[in-house]
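New to this. Please check this fold:
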Amino acid sequence: MASTTRLFGLILIVMGVASYVGTGRTSVTALIPAIFGAIFVICALVARTESMRKHAMHVAVAVGLVGALASLVRAVPAVMAGDAARPAVLVQLAMAVMLLFYVFLGVQSFIAARKARLGR
């Protein structure tokens, strides 16, 4: 799961920087995906230590869930208002979908680890 976390982190960093540059660097809020990505990369680095892996991955999945919900809270009203084509809304939707998928993968990983630990 640490390598998946690192991959999602790097993708979010690229997404954030690309949206910031692509929108003419008018608002630093375009870097929000990059901030979440940086947190993911840090969690993946911490997870390299065996004793910290479980904690780091739980933090990463919690951050992913918070990020997904925050993105949806901002994007859904904008889509309902007819602003779905705005770059900021598109990035928010992409971030929400990515993070929801990441949370799904994380939960699946936690379930598999628990089953393996219990010998099922």
About this structure: DSSP finds four helices and no strands in the chain. Helices lie at 2-22, 32-46, 50-80, 87-118. The chain has one domain: 2-118. Residues 4 and 102 are 8 Å apart (CA to CA).
